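debug: dumping io for the single-chain case to check the tokenizer round-trip. Nothing else runs in this session.
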Amino acid sequence: MADIDRKTVALRAEDEDGRYRLLMDAITDYAIYMLDAVGRVSSWNAGAQRFKGYTADEIIGQHFSCFYTMEDRDSGLPALALRTAATEGRFEKEGWRVRKDGSRFWAHVVIDPIRGDGDEVIGFAKITRDVSDRKAAQDALEEARLALFQSQKLDAIGQLTGGVAHDFNNLLMAILGSLELVRRRLPTDPRITPLIDNAIQGAQRGAALTQRMLAFARKQDLSVSAVDLGALVRGMSGLLSQSLGHGISLEIEIPEALPPLKTDPVHLEAAILNLALNARDAMPDGGRIVIGATSQAVGPALSSAGLTPGDYVRLSVVDNGHGMDAATVERAMEPFYTTKGVGKGTGLGLSMVHGLVEQCGGRMVLHSAPGQGATVELWLPQATIAAAPVETAAAAPMAACAGLTILAVDDDGLVLMNTQAMLEELGHKVLAAYSAREALDLLASHEVDLVITDYAMPKTTGAQLAQAIQGDWPGLPIILATGYAELPVETDDRLVRLAKPFGMADLAAAMARALKPQAAEAA
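debug: decoded output
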């Protein structure tokens, strides 16, 4: 009777073992297998074979460390996993694992100890799950989050930079204008005149610096038109070669049939020259720079790069210099960030290019790696129409149309005083107003021939003041002085724009443009 009971128990155990194996083999989403006390594989299910590529015959008896990367094996992670499971009762971790063919997958691993009757560890149960898809989704989400953070950071820096540049522009406006007037009114003196000229040059360099800052902030004043990129680059090839110097090979690969692009040609020339000089500085022992361009259609699939679907021209400047690491690439477009030595750069070059391209509705992309050079791509929208011929007004003497009554409006006292002094030097009578309200009151009580107003003023902008003036005094010429580019689209075309900071010649030229319609009617 006892023998029958033992046989029954053995048959039941064998049957349960068979059912267990059937259950394990039916599970294919998890790799479930056993390890002996030292980590050798002692069982293997169908899920393990699917994940890792080994058959049971190939892997049973092998140490489970073969599933780990070489880096993890060198660091002792397999032994640590077993030790943790034995001492703490469980080991759980995610990381890279290696298949039979050498490919990697991201795995979620759980190891539990198996104990004997004496509580000693006699083996381990190991469950592995392939979570590569989840890992890829998390990485994509993190990449998108970092891209958003970078965009927000650059936008915040741009807002700060634009505000600082605008205020500094007003200071330079007062300095440059005053120095110019002093230079005109003082007789030439070898002890004084060179100092004034030096101060003017310093202020002009400061003005150029603020223009780069405004370019990064996408608030510079642009004159956008259809540009033949091939003609523009070939036209400046002599300047490029001369600027790059010896040891640098310059190649231009721009097709003749390239569609025109939409940008400011003057600022684009400065951007290309800046990129070429940056490439030169990355090749102190000489090298090769290639300026190329292609026509590229952007569909919804590429819009994730920040480009609106449409037709673009992709301008590239490629060098074979020392390249940049990932951290430098990430910060390269920030203003005042530079890898050059002290006194060898302002750190505004790439940020200026970035701002120009963004302001034109395009995107700047930087590719680089240490030892692999750098590629800067400027994606600029294609122009929908051909470039119109630029009408150039005949140069007129600065004293032309003297004797006018002009209303000057600016909330900055230094700039207003400077503008008034320049207008009086040109022979005009000037009424000064510090606000739009004060300007409208003066217009109501005086006969005025021309209005010159600042754009960025509190409460009422220069554009809003211009609309109010045009409503009550239609036909009155108005000049809008600004260093910004964010004028409203609906601003009247009759407004003449004057870029800050400006000198007397700039002011006289703007007045000539503003008064030209009246001169034509009088004729």
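debug: round-trip ok. Residues 191 and 197 are 11 Å apart (CA to CA).
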